[in-house]
Amino acid sequence: MNWSAISNDYKHYLNIERGFSKNTVENYSRDVKKLIAFLEDKELSISPIEIDKEMLLTFVYETSKKNKAKSQARLISGLRNFFDYLIFEKYRSDNPTEHIETPKTGRKLPDTLSLEEIDLLISQINLSHPQGERNKALLETLYSCGLRVSELVSLQLSDLFFDEGFIRVLGKGDKHRFVPIGYDTQKLLQHYIQFIRCHDPIQEGHQDVLFLNRRGRKLTRVMIFSILKKLANEAHFGKKISPHTFRHSFATHLLERGADLRAIQQMLGHESITTTEIYMHLDTSHLKTVVEKFHPRSK
C-alpha cells in the first residue's frame, strides 16, 4: 500500500461516505499530505500500515516548531481521523495517534456586541449609497438569524419562506436547517428584493442568489468582512469584530433573555450541545438572576 493511493481513497471516503463539506475534506487531506511530505523529506520509506507512534511523534515535534498549539491540536486530530479510517477499512488494527497528547489550546471566544452597539454599527450604513439597503438587510439577517458568514452569502431567494416565518440555511456538511426570521428583518429583505435587487444586472447562474454584488454575482465572504470593517471604523469601535461576532451575539442575547439552550443549538446548527455551551460566556450577574428567579430555595 502506498501513501498516494490510500490518501486518494481517504479523500473519497470523506467526501462520499462521510458527506463532509469541501473545506473539511481539504483540511483533513492536507494533514495527510503534510505527513507524506515529511517522510519524503527525510527519505523514509514507511507505509501507512507500518508507521508507528514514535515516527508520528517525531513528525508532530518537527512541525510544532512552526505551528501554534491550536494548529498542532488540529493536525493531531486530522491524523487521528486518518488512522481511524485505516482501522475502519481493516488496513490496521491500531491507531498510532491514540496516545499522542493533544496540546491544550484554550478557547478564545469572540467579543459580543450589545444591542446598542449593533444598532450603532448598522446606523453607520449610508442608505443613499446603491449598496446601502443591501448591506442593512444582510447585517440584520446575519444578527437576527445567527448565521455563519458562509451561510449568509449562500442564501437564495428559494430559501425564503416568509409565510411560515423561516429561512432555509445550508450549513456545515451541506446540511439544511430552518431558522426563524423576524418580521422586521423580513420587511428589510422584501424591500431589498423588490426595489434594489431587481435593478441589478444579474449574471447567468446567479438568478436565485439573494445578496448580489454590483456586478450581479454572489457576494464573497471577504466582502462581508470588508463591509463590517468599514462600519466598525466609522463607528470608532475599540474592539475587533467579524461576522462571527454577530452570530455569537445572537446566541448570547437569546440565552440571556431566557431562551432554551437546545433551541439555540438547533438554530445555530450545532451537532453537539457542548459546542453551544462553549459559545455562552454569560456574566455572573445574569447567572445570579437565573438562580434567584428559578431556584425553589431562593427568596
What is the ordering of alpha helices and beta strands? HHHHHHHEEEHHHHHH
Instruction: Provide the CATH superfamily of the largest domain.
Output: Intergrase catalytic core
N- and C-termini, Cα separation: 69 Å
Please state the CA-atom Rg, rounded to the nearest Å: 23 Å
The description of the largest β-sheet is: 3 strands, antiparallel
User: What share of the residues lie within helices?
Assistant: 40-55%
Instruction: Give the count of helical stretches.
Output: 13
Q: Widest sheet: strand order?
A: 1-2-3
The overall pLDDT, averaged over residues, is 88
**Strand residue percentage:** under 5%
CATH architecture of the largest domain: Orthogonal Bundle
Please give the number of β-strands: 3
Helix/strand class: mainly alpha
Tertiary shape: globular
Q: Any idea of the CATH topology of the largest domain?
A: hpI Integrase, Chain A
> How many structural domains can be distinguished in the coordinates?
2
Low-confidence stretches: none
